[in-house]
Amino acid sequence: MEILLIEDDEAVREFIREVLLGAGYFVSAAGNGKEGLAAIKSDPDIGMVITDIVMPEKEGIETIIEIKQSWPQIKIIAISGGGRICAEDYLHIASELGADITLKKPFARHELLGAVAELTRHKYPDVKMPLISDYPAVADVLDRAGV
Fold first, then answer.
1. b/e code 90-122 from CB counts within 10 Å (16+ = b)
2. How many CB atoms lie within 10 A of CB 59?
């Protein structure tokens, strides 16, 4: 399963992409909802979308609606830092329209990875996804910290 990340802010997009790649996920990226929908149409392996809400071209709410209408099996994580209204309002709307999980920016790596792992387990219940503490470098740091 591939994850499609739709985020207009290049720095945020690269950060999220690196976190997901570092955890072993396959990730493709788009800069807005229009590009994201085109990516879904051309790649049947996309099983999850992480989308920002406030974006140019086609914003996240429209994107979520179109994904749920055309590809209801795709899991969606909506992310937002706000805009004209507060982030919680955008995320509540996203949840009502079909987002499976919402995250308010800024969020920690473990929150993002936890959300992705939760949805992956729901889609593939027999597959054990690694936890961040399963990675040797992370386990070493946790051991040294006494966690």
1. bbebbeebbbbbbbbeeeeeeebbbbbbebbee
2. 20
Q: How many angstroms separate the CA atoms of 70 and 81, rounded?
A: 27
Name the residue type at position 133: S
Residue range 16-51, pLDDT digits in tens:
999 999 999 999 999 999 999 999 999 999 999 999
Q: For the whole model, what pTM was predicted? A: 0.80
Q: Are 78 and 16 in contact (CB under 8 A)?
A: no
CATH code of the domain in which 103 resides: 3.40.50.2300
Q: CB under 8 Å to 110, separation ≥6 — which residues?
A: 132
- Residue 4 in contact with residue 61, Cβ under 8 Å? no
Residues 52-94 have pLDDT tens digits of 998 888 889 999 999 999 999 999 999 988 655 565 788 889 9
Number of domains in the chain: 1
Domain span including residue 43: 2-145
Specify whether the CB–CB gap between 43 and 35 falls below 8 A. Answer: no
